[in-house]
Each structure stands twice: as C-alpha cells, then as structure tokens.
Amino acid sequence: MTVVAAELSAATHAAELRSWLADHASELASFRNRTPGGIDANVVHERTLLAMLAEAGWSRRGWPEEVGGLGGPVLLRAVLYDELAAFGLEIPEAYVILETLGPLLVAFAPSLAARHLPASLAGREIWGQGFSEPDAGSDLAHLRTRAAARDDGGFRLSGQKSWTTLGQFSEFAAVLARTGTAEEAHRGLTMLWVDLRASGATVRPITASNGRDEFAEMFFDEVDVPADGLIGEVGGGWAAAMYLLQYERGMYAWQRQAVLNRRLREAIASAGTSSQPVAASTRIALGRALHAVTALRARSRRTVTRLSDGENPGPEISIDKAMLGQAEQLAFDALRQLNRTRATLGGDPHDQQLREEWFYSRASTIFGGAIDVQRDVVAERVLGLRRSGR
User: Fold this and answer.
1) I need a labelling partner for 40 at 20 to 30 A (CA). Which of 63, 96, 179, 356 fits?
2) What pTM did the predictor assign?
3) Residue 109: is it exposed, middle or buried by C-beta count within 10 angstroms (0-12/13-18/19+)?
4) 203-210: long-range contacts at Cβ-Cβ below 8 A with a sequence spacing of 24 or more?
C-alpha cells in the first residue's frame, strides 16, 4: 500500500472510530480517568476497555490477519491511540508493551504471535519486557542472565531482570539472555518468550518515586523455556532487540504525544474558565510545552508513517526518544506550575494523578535509553560527527 493510500485509509478509519466512540460514550465514560484503588485496580479496570476495543475490532486493525488481526496498515494502530486520547479516554498502559513486543513476535516468532497476540489485544494477557539488569541497563551487551541449551532444543534460564513495566501483572515476558560467552558481547544474546508462572520464576513489584508500583524485578532460577519459546534465532537476540526498539520508541512516542496533547488541552480549557488569571510565567511554560509536544507529534507522525510503510528508521529513532523525554518534562512542569497548590497538596484523584505523572516524567529522559546516549547516537550515526579526540 502506498503512503497516500495508507493515509486515506487511516482518515476513513479515524472518522469511523470517532463515530463509534460517540455512540458508546456512556459505556466509555468510566475510562476517562484512572480508577481509584491504585495501579492494581487500574490494570483490572483497563482490561475491560481492552476487551471492548478488541471485540469491536478497533484494536485488531493494523495487525496481520494470520496472527489474529484484521489487516490493514500499521498506521491504523496509531489512529486508535490518537482518537482514544482525543475523545478524552486514558490509553491503556498495556498498549505500551503490546506495541513494543507485538511487532517483534509478528516478525521473529509468528507462531507465538498467533497464539498470544489475540489474548493481549483482548486484555486476557499482559506482557513484560526483560532487558535491563542491575548491572546492565543501557549496556545490554554486558547482561548476565544466562540461558543454557537443553537436549530437547529448549533452554534453562537463570538470572535477574529489573525495571519491567507492569511486570507484576504479566503472564509472559520477552527476555534477552546470554547463550554465548561473555566475550561475544551482543553477538552471544538470544531472545526468549518466558512463562512467568513457570516453576523457578519470581516477580516482585518495584515502587517508583510517584508511589505507584510502576515496575517489577524478575528472578529466574533454572526456569525451563520450551524450544518454541525461541524468538528469532539462537545468537540473534541483538538483532531482535534492535528491531524492537523502533516500535518501543516510535509508536510509544506517538502514544505519549497523544496523552500529552490531551493533558495540555484540558488544562488550558479549564484555566480559561477560571476566575483566577494565569501568570505570565505560566503562560510561557504552557507555550513551551505545547511547542515541544507539537514538534514531537510532527516527528512521530513521520516515524509511524515510515513504520507503516515497512521502513526501519534505524538510528534516527533516537531523535524521537530524545524529543519525547523533553516534551514529557516540559508538559508536566507546566501543568504543575498551572496547578501548583493542588499538585502539591490536593487530595482530589486528579491532583494525585498529576503528582504521579509529574514524578514519573522525571525518569522519561532515562528509561528506554538515556537522553545523553540518544544524543550521542544522533551525533555519530545520523549526523556523522566524530567523537572529540579522534
């Protein structure tokens, strides 16, 4: 499908989706905000929305038919996230991991995708991403989690992973493990699909600075992984990880710009009806945030269009990641400045959510690839600049 045809298809899809959302507004009203009760209750609540969108077919569009989707370009998935946010709904957090691992399974393990993607889309399964370790964060080439080959073609997995988003709620995880020697660095890695309910697997939540159990750490003590749990090839884990990154950073940035646009739009509309004037410094902060989010949206639109057209953005995807971190922090700094007292002391659920999101935004320039590393990638591999001293 050509880019023009894909965009026309996306426009039609968006119009139809908007109509469906309007027709089901009363049923969707409870998903405009997080449900009270913390992240545990919210994950359960969002499973209902995931099921609704899958049953109606909206979340299945843009995924191949052979793995349980309804076909169509990847751009249709981007439309879904944009329209959910524009309608004032919270984008389910499970979609972040789905967009990270779903394309990986489709490309490198289609049999696993056919088995698990429909369950994830319907909210019956949540997945985790097991990359970072206590001694190997951005430096994945030095990870220590090991997968020893078994005689039947399977593996026995031992080690620890950290900072796994929604890990404590996940039934399965894609785990990057070492099958070669330490000297082989990134060439000795293999990607595995691991059942987190298997004997020897332990998952513990990690409480973030915002008070939510945003992440988890996973421990593997001689966990048996069957032969069909291999994602790609033995020793091909680095290639699988690099493929994954284009969606983890590209489609995630698109999801987040939709959320940030919604947050800023609603805050500005609320301020416009208030009897209290908005300070000039706050208006400037909001303007800078809108500028950053608008730039991120333009950049992300280009990236998801390229992904939909079958292109791999390569190292250019680091631009999206760097812009996202800056936009997140500028947006939530401005929102906090606009509602300083409530954001600090307010007991309303909206105030609590703003505090949680502001704290979480502090990590946006670190997780998924630190911003300084991304700038180095852009300088060296996109702009062709040399390191000083060379």
Assistant:
1) 63
2) 0.91
3) buried
4) 203/128, 203/164, 203/167, 203/168, 203/170, 204/168, 205/167, 205/168, 206/162, 206/163, 208/359, 208/360, 208/363, 209/359, 209/360, 209/362, 209/363, 210/355, 210/356, 210/357, 210/358, 210/359, 210/360
User: At which residue do the structure tokens 């309910």 appear?
Assistant: 197
Rounded to whole angstroms, the Cα distance separating 6 from 4 reads 5
As a whole number of angstroms, the longest Cα–Cα distance in the chain is 73
The pairing of strands 172-178 and 127-130 is: parallel
CA 39 to each of CA 42, 214, 301, 340: distance values in angstroms, whole numbers, following the listed order: 5, 8, 30, 24
Backbone angles phi, psi at 193, to 5 degrees: -100, 115
In angstroms, the CA 132 to CA 244 distance is 14
Could you give the CA distance from residue 328 to residue 334 in angstroms, rounded to a whole number? 10
Tokens of 220: 């593997």
- Do 78 and 254 contact (CB within 8 A), yes or no? yes
* N-to-C CA span, the chain: 45
Q: By the 8 A CB rule, do 187 and 236 touch?
A: no
The identity of residue 157, as a single letter, is: L
| Tens of pLDDT, residues 68-83 | 999 999 999 999 999 9
Residue 9: the pLDDT is: 80
> Which pLDDT score is estimated for 7?
57
- Tokens 């020897």 belong to which residue? 200
CA distance linking residue 123 with residue 195, whole number of Å: 17
| Average pLDDT taken over every residue of the chain | 92
- Say yes or no to pLDDT of 67 above 60: yes
How far, in Å, CA of 207 to CA of 205, rounded? 7
Which residues is 174 bridged to in the sheet? 129, 193
One-letter identity of residue 246: Q
Residue carrying structure tokens 């609320």? 270
C-alpha span between 370 and 390 (Å, rounded)? 24
